[in-house]
Amino acid sequence: HVQLAESGGDLVQPGGSLRLSCVSSLRIFRYDNMGWYRQVPGKQRESVAIIGSDDITTYHTSVEGRFTISKDIDKNTWYLQMNRLEPEDTAVYYCYVDYLQYGVRKTAWGQGTQVTVSS
User: Fold this and answer.
1) How far apart are the C-alpha atoms of 101 and 78, rounded to whole Å?
2) Which are the contacts of 3, defined by CB distance < 8 A and separation ≥ 6?
3) Cβ-count burial 63-80 (b if 16+ within 10 Å, e if not)
4) DSSP label at 47?
5) pLDDT (tens digit per residue) in 23-59
């Protein structure tokens, strides 16, 4: 089955930028959505950005205009470019993909990467 690996999390000052990457272990031929969630301890995981197979993107209102999701299917990779980071963006970021394998719909999650925004 598909395994995902995130990278790019780091400690950054407010106003800084990071780019997260998510690499799939397998080529994903059929998928619905791929994207990013984030979670802060004690709070529910929230959707940050989604990109569909039709390339339509959706963002959480708190990151619109600052974050950009993109994908490179040939590299089995999608990205989250995060600009003008704020302390409120501090969280563990998880990538995921909703895909179809042998006629069965599945969801794969990465292990998470820590983003800390602090001066």
Assistant:
1) 19
2) 24, 25, 26, 108
3) beeebbbebeeeebbbbb
4) E
5) 999 888 888 899 999 999 999 999 999 999 999 999 9
Measured from the Cβ of residue 47, the count of other Cβ atoms closer than 10 Å reads 14
Q: Are 94 and 112 spatial neighbours (Cβ–Cβ below 8 Å)?
A: yes
CA gap 102, 65 in Å, rounded = 37
Per-residue DSSP letter, 2: -
Q: CA–CA distance from 21 to each of 47, 87, 95 (Å)?
A: 16, 21, 8
Task: For residue 32, give the amino acid letter.
Answer: D
Phi–psi pair at 81, nearest 5 degrees: -85, 120
- From residue 61, give the alpha-carbon distance in Å to each of 18, 33, 48, 64, 101: 19, 18, 9, 5, 32
**Percent of the chain having pLDDT more than 70?**
100
Q: For the chain, what percent of residues have pLDDT higher than 90?
A: 86
What value, to the nearest 5°, has the Cα angle with vertex 74 and ends 48 and 26?
80
